Amino acid sequence: MKLEEAKQQFIDTWGALGTEWGINKSVAQVHALLLSSSNPISTDEIMEMLVISRGNANMSIRQLIDYGIVYKKHIAGDRKEYFVAEKEVLKWAMKIAIMRKKKELDPVMDILKEITVATEKETTDDGKEFHNTVKEIQELTDQLEKIANKVFASNRADLLIKLFKFII
Amino acid sequence: MKLEEAKQQFIDTWGALGTEWGINKSVAQVHALLLSSSNPISTDEIMEMLVISRGNANMSIRQLIDYGIVYKKHIAGDRKEYFVAEKEVLKWAMKIAIMRKKKELDPVMDILKEITVATEKETTDDGKEFHNTVKEIQELTDQLEKIANKVFASNRADLLIKLFKFII
DNA sequence: TTTTATTTTCAATATTTATTGAAAGTTTAG
DNA sequence: CTAAACTTTCAATAAATATTGAAAATAAAA
């Protein structure tokens, strides 16, 4: 397999995986492209290499920058903006996890909590069972969130993985 | 908040969360509806309560049954099929996790492995750096997969959560 | 300042994904 | 067996989501 082929396959795979998990294909592909490149890349190069429009390239880059996993890089004597991806895997993986948790999971956890409280005083069997179901989900996500928060805060997920492998 | 209101909010929230994570809205809503009900529910009731078509209801139920998180329930003297959701949270959460891992993550891990091997002998700086990036991703996912497999196999994720809370 | 290069925005359009509903298939009752 | 009850399938359609591309905005150079 030639290098360019390998890179292309990586980009395609990343794009497909993103799609399945609710991440825009172009965003995932731009991320993969930047990950697979040693040097900073400009918007024009991204457009050309992924065959996407300027608008799409621009918005995808911006989203990755918002996630904090891609940085702008100024190149002396060039007016264009260049971009590089955070290459440390655990670092960007954690940033994506933190961002998605905050944006998508936290609001749901709040609602689960609300529902749990609101159904506390149900008297019917049906009401009590629903309360218990929601409460169980809420308590489990709560425990997982506490663990996740500690992992995120520690910034030493690598050590934790080692520890976990040792224990289990 | 009235019980019916609470249930509806649970169903809506579940549907929205599913959508964000690549799970069909109707599938997630049917799951939530079954979770929030003490008694088995028929296709007709699902159609009525969620205001969806027979085809959609049928396919959503089937998918949940395929996941192994919803069961058919025969009711004596009734020709209709009724359905109940697995109520034990950890049980269905694990089943969903296992299924998605197998279907969506495992193939990607295979490809990452392939790319890692295929770029082993790269000689250019660019080639070597790409190889390292992919290898790092591959190794991390590999470690996480091993942990996940053990957790899945143990069927005692509850104990592991307690253990983890204790350690960290 | 004016010109030119570059980036951003967003309405229009294309693509993908979800949903419908009626016909075909299946099962059970009479 | 035949009819009725129920389930499944899937082509057609609708809805949601992603992408384009050109105009507007911004920034740098002349």
UniProtKB/TrEMBL annotation, chains A, B:
Listed PANTHER family: HTH-TYPE TRANSCRIPTIONAL REGULATOR MJ1563-RELATED
Membrane-traversing stretches: none
Protein name as annotated: HTH-type transcriptional regulator
Keywords: DNA-binding, Transcription, Transcription regulation
Family: Belongs to the GbsR family.
Domain of life of the organism encoding this protein: Bacteria
Listed InterPro entries: HTH-GbsR_regulator, MJ1563, WH-like_DNA-bd_sf, WH_DNA-bd_sf
Coiled-coil segments on the chain, per record: none
Organism placement in taxonomy: Bacteria, Pseudomonadati, Bacteroidota, Sphingobacteriia, Sphingobacteriales
Species in which this protein is naturally found: Sphingobacterium bovistauri
